[in-house]
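#struct-help
A.M.: can someone run this one for me? Single chain, 339 residues.
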Amino acid sequence: MLRPLIRLLSLLPALVALPALAGPTLEGVKARGQLVCGVNSGVAGFSAPDSQGNYQGLDADFCRAVAAATLGDAGKVRFVPTTYQTRFVALQSGEIDVLTRNVTQTLMRDTALGFNMAGVNFYDGQGFVVPKASGIASARQLDGATVCVLPGSTSELNLGDFARREKLRIEPVVLSAMDEMTAAYQAGRCDAMTSDASQLAALRVSALRDPAAHVILPERISKEPLGPMVRHGDEAWRDIVAWTLLAMIEAEELGVGRANAEAMRGAQDPNVQRLLGVTPGFGKALGLPEDWAYQAIRQVGNYGEVFERNLGKGSPIGLERGLNDLWTRGGLMYALPLR
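D.P.: on it. Structure tokens below:
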């Protein structure tokens, strides 16, 4: 009995070293020489076009990182703006290769809609914004209030759950797009506006006429783990998207960023050597060049760098890292072992 077992164990290194078979999505990306990425049409800090029409934000930069990992060039991305109504259709139909649109990961989206989650790039929760002059200091004071919300979103479902749970009379005012919701709120059509707290923070500074006249209430009425999604049926592509995110998180933990990625290739730390492709085999396992993670980090940055320039205290949004800090600093960002 021992001899067959020993023989099987002796084959494991060879099995591990087998290259991944390229899936149809990667083949399509390579054939066109471009990644097609579905993003939000305008949420500052996540994905929004700047004055030159170039998309900026956490989600937009993640698209660039995937392009760098797969094509060696972070600029080879075509951004497709999507709405709450079109985002899932665009992914299901193959119009886009990956959806990175601050989308909440849920059981039904993973199963009934036929998507695969590829990691969490922002831990969020749903909140409310109200005029400071209203004197409302808690979401539990919204009894009898009208609340602007987007259709087909987890926010709409969560709002109903919250009202029933807290026995509040809340009348939803359903608007079809973020700019319509913001305009309705500013026009006084609703007493409050609800969405992911990060989106409210972005809207407060980028879309409301007087940010100081509005406050985000302290309660978070849901868990909203946001992250990239891909279609079911192409596990190789899901692996590439997921491990690109994990590599960016690992890079922050190891102290590897855009400025020092090249120099760090000479580091003696075996974890750094594996991350940056000095130790071969890990690119091959994904069906990518050995320097896939190095290219993503050198061209786009580690997770912390991307967060800080788009959402952090030095950005117009001004968010604390909070749950989105590394696990070593009390957050939830934890990379699986790259080995």
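A.M.: thanks! The two ends are 30 Å apart (CA to CA).
D.P.: also worth noting: The longest helix spans residues 235-254.
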